[in-house]
Each structure stands twice: as structure tokens, then as C-alpha cells.
Amino acid sequence: MAGHCPLLSLKAQALALLARREYSRSELQTRLLAHARKRAAAAAEAPAVDPWDHEAAAAQPQEAPSAEALHAEVDAVLDWLASRQYQSDTRFVETRVNARAARHGERRIRHELAQHGLTLDADTAQQLRSTEVQRAHEVWLKRFGVVATEAHERARQMRFLAARGFSAESVRRVVGGRDPDEE
């Protein structure tokens, strides 16, 4: 194939991914394993050896590495990235919380982090809980802006906020028309 460029090494692929955005270790591991499998498949399908190149013809064809070997190679790259602070689960949690906090509730953020095998630290969770009613009110204002007078409209507003991960108490306070600053 003319113009076919070789696949990047695992470190280069990991750095290219991390240059775009933060990744959790588990998410990066999944992507790097897929890349490692693709590299192994490409190596197994290497072009035929030139018949006049006797050294290359004498070399044994390489076997595809086992799944354990690929996992070990990817884990070594992940450890290297973590030791140099290129990848950090703590930093991933901070960026995910900062990106989601304005539009989503604590439950939704916790769920997204759990999908990556991560949890919120106690301080961040407390901060999200303390501002949840205010954040829910801002989301509600942007979407609806007026207190519902009919039950089906109130239910629609409540479903919307609940789907965004806000707590039931926060949803009741906001949809009920109470001021978010009052206790």
C-alpha cells in the first residue's frame, strides 16, 4: 500500500491521546489495548520478504504476542505515564467535575466517574452537595424559567432535573418555586 504510515508505538499513541484530553487509567488502558492488538495484527500481516534478501528470508516469522503480554506492555506504559504525571486519575476527576458541575447533579457525576472506576473525594462531594440546589436552579432557569402551574408540566420539569442527576430534594425545591438561597 502506497502512503501507508506505520502505527504509532504505545507510548506515542498514549501521548497523542493525552494531548487531546485527560483520560482515566482504565479508559486509556482500553484504548491502548485496542491499539496494541491492531499493531500485533499489522505485524502478523507484514508484507512478503524480498526473495533476494537472504537474511530476512532466514528470519523466523514473529508470532503474535499473547493477551497477557499485551496487557503487561500496556501496564508498563501506563505506569511510565503515571510516574511522569502525564496521566493522573486525580486530575481526570477534577477536570470531569469542573466540566460537568454547572449542568449536572452529584449523582450523575458520581455515575460517570464510577464508569471509569473512580470515586469523588469527600471534599469535592461536599462542595457539590452544598451547591446542588443553586446549580439545579440555574439549569432549571435556563431551560424553563417559569414555575409550572399544571401537574404534568411540573412532572416534566422534575424528570428533566432528575435525569441531570440532581437529588430529589433539590428538584422539589427548585420546581416548587422556592428560592435556592433559603433553607
Automatic annotation (TrEMBL):
Feature: compositional bias, Low complexity: 57-66
Segments of this protein annotated with the region Disordered: 44-66
Superkingdom classification of source: Bacteria
Main location (coarse class): cytoplasm
Cellular localization per UniProt: Cytoplasm
Residue stretches making up the RecX second three-helical domain: 88-118
Keywords of this entry: Cytoplasm
Start and end residues of each RecX third three-helical domain: 132-175
Similarity-based family: Belongs to the RecX family.
Function: Modulates RecA activity.
HAMAP family: RecX
Protein name: Regulatory protein RecX
Organism: Ideonella paludis
Protein's gene: recX
